[in-house]
Design brief:
With 375 residues, the chain is an alpha/beta fold. Helix content is 40%, strand content 14%. The longest helix has 25 residues.
C-alpha cells in the first residue's frame, strides 16, 4: 500500500509546537489533568490505583457505555474504541475496500478520508462542496457520481475545514440513497455536539442507518486530543467484527489511563461541551467584527457548528500570505492549498482561549504590511 504525504499533518508537524500562536487549530481548548480528575470525587485515587496491563481489545466497558450514551440507538457492544479517529479511519478503509472499488468522498476533506482509499487502489471520486455557496453539497451531484461499483460514500458533518452543516432532511436522503444503491456511509462526526444552535444537530448516521458507521473522538468537541481515544459506532455487525479483528494488527488495545480519563470526561460531557461552546461563541463574535472590518480582503462565512472556518483571501496568494504572517508575527494560519482545493481559502480555528491575542497580531500585520486592499 502506498500512501501520499499527509500535507496538513506535515505542516502541523513543522509548525505546531514552534509557532507562538495557533490560529488554525481544529480542536477546542484542552484541559489540565487535575481539572479533569476534579470532576468526580475519588477520581484521583481511582486513577492512581489503575493497573497498567493490557486492556480489553474492544475498549473499556465503562468507556463504551459512556460513548453509547451519545447516540439514540447504539448500545455499548456496538462501539469499538480506537487510538484516535485516525486509527479508526485507517482500519475502516482497510477492512472495507479492495483495489478497484469505487468510493465517493466529500471534498475538501481531512486528507486521510480520501488518501487511505486511494492508497488501497480504490477509485476515488470527489464530491465537492460549492465554494460560491459556502461549500454546500449537492445531492444531485452525488447521484450522478454513483456507479455499480460504488461501495462507500464518505462524509464529514460538521465539516473540516469549512464548517458546512447540512439539514437533517439532507442526511435522511443520503441514508435512503445508501439503502437504495447499497453503498456504506462512513460519517466522520468528530465535531458533532459543537452546533451553535442545538436544533441544528444532525442525527448520527449510525442511528439512522443500520449499515452506516459514525466516527467520533475525544479530540475535537471535548478538546482532549492528547488522550488519543476515538471510536466507531455501528449496527453493522459484520463490519464491526472485521474491524475488531483488524485492530489486532494495529494497536491491539487502548491505553488504560486514556480510557479511564475519556470515560470520566464523557460522564461530564455536557459541562465540557458548554465550556467549549462558550469559547467558540465569544471568539466568533470577534471574528465577525474582524471580517466585517476586513471585507475587502477576506470573504467570510460564519459556520453553524464547529471550531473552524474557511474564509477566502481575496488578494494575493494564500501560501505566501500565511508564510509571511508566521515569519513576522508567529501566528499560524493554514493555507487551504494543503487541502488541494485550488481556491485561495485559509483555515482559521476559534476553539482556543488565546484567539484574541492571535487575532490582534493578525490585525496589526494587515495594517502594517498590506496597506490598502488590492496592493
Ligand atoms: C475531520 C477529521 N477527522 C478525523 C481527524 C483525526 O482525529 P484525531 O487526530 O483525533 O485522530 C481529524 C483531525 O484533525 C479531523 O479533522
Amino acid at each position: 500500500m502506498k500512501l501520499e504525504p499527509f500535507r496538513l499533518e506535515r505542516y502541523f508537524a513543522r509548525h505546531e509546537f514552534s509557532a507562538a500562536y495557533l490560529l488554525c487549530a481544529s480542536d477546542c481548548e484542552s484541559m489540565e489533568l487535575g481539572d479533569l480528575l476534579a470532576l468526580e470525587p475519588q477520581a484521583q485515587e481511582r486513577f492512581l490505583s489503575l493497573r497498567l496491563g493490557y486492556t480489553e481489545s474492544l475498549g473499556d466497558p465503562a468507556l463504551r457505555q459512556a460513548i453509547a450514551r451519545l447516540y439514540a440507538r447504539i448500545t455499548a457492544d456496538q462501539v469499538l474504541v480506537h487510538a484516535g479517529a485516525e486509527e479508526a479511519i485507517f482500519n475502516f478503509m482497510q477492512v472495507t475496500l479492495s483495489s478497484g472499488d469505487h468510493v465517493i468522498v466529500q471534498t475538501p476533506c481531512y486528507q486521510s478520508l480520501g488518501a487511505v482509499a486511494r492508497g488501497l487502489g480504490a477509485t476515488v471520486t470527489e464530491w465537492c462542496g460549492d465554494p460560491m455557496r459556502a461549500w454546500e453539497l449537492d445531492l444531485d451531484l452525488l447521484k450522478k457520481a454513483l456507479t455499480q461499483r460504488t461501495k462507500l460514500v464518505v462524509v464529514n458533518f460538521p465539516h473540516n475545514p469549512t464548517g458546512f452543516l447540512p439539514t437533517a432532511a439532507f442526511v435522511q436522503e443520503l441514508s435512503l440513497l445508501s439503502e437504495r444503491h447499497g453503498f456504506v456511509i462512513f460519517s466522520d462526526e468528530v465535531y458533532r455536539g459543537l452546533e451553535l444552535d442545538p436544533a441544528d444537530r444532525l442525527p448520527a448516521l449510525a442511528d439512522l442507518n443500520d449499515r452506516a458507521v459514525s466516527l467520533g473522538v475525544m479530540s475535537k468537541t471535548y478538546g482532549l486530543a492528547g488522550l488519543r481515544i476515538g471510536w466507531i459506532a455501528t449496527r453493522n455487525r459484520r463490519l464491526f467484527e472485521a474491524l475488531a479483528g483488524f485492530k489486532d494488527y494495529t494497536t491491539i488495545c487502548n491505553s488504560a489511563p486514556s480510557e479511564f480519563l475519556a470515560a470520566l470526561a464523557l460522564r461530564h460531557a455536557q459541562g465540557i461541551v458548554d465550556r467549549n461552546l462558550e469559547i467558540i461563541r465569544a471568539n466568533l463574535e470577534r471574528l465577525d467584527r474582524f471580517f466585517a472590518d476586513q471585507g475587502e480582503r477576506f470573504a467570510w462565512h460564519r459556520p453553524k457548528a464547529g471550531p473552524i472556518a474557511f474564509p477566502t483571501l481575496l488578494h494575493g496568494a494564500v501560501d505566501a500570505f500565511c508564510a509571511d504572517l508566521l515569519k513576522q508575527t508567529g501566528v499560524l494560519l493554514l493555507p487551504g492549498t494543503l487541502y488541494g482545493t485550488g481556491t485561495n481559502a485559509l483555515r482559521i480555528g476559534f476553539g482556543r482561549k488565546n484567539l484574541p491575542e492571535a487575532l490582534a497580531r493578525l490585525e496589526r500585520y494587515i495594517q502594517l504590511s498590506m496597506g490598502s486592499a488590492g496592493e
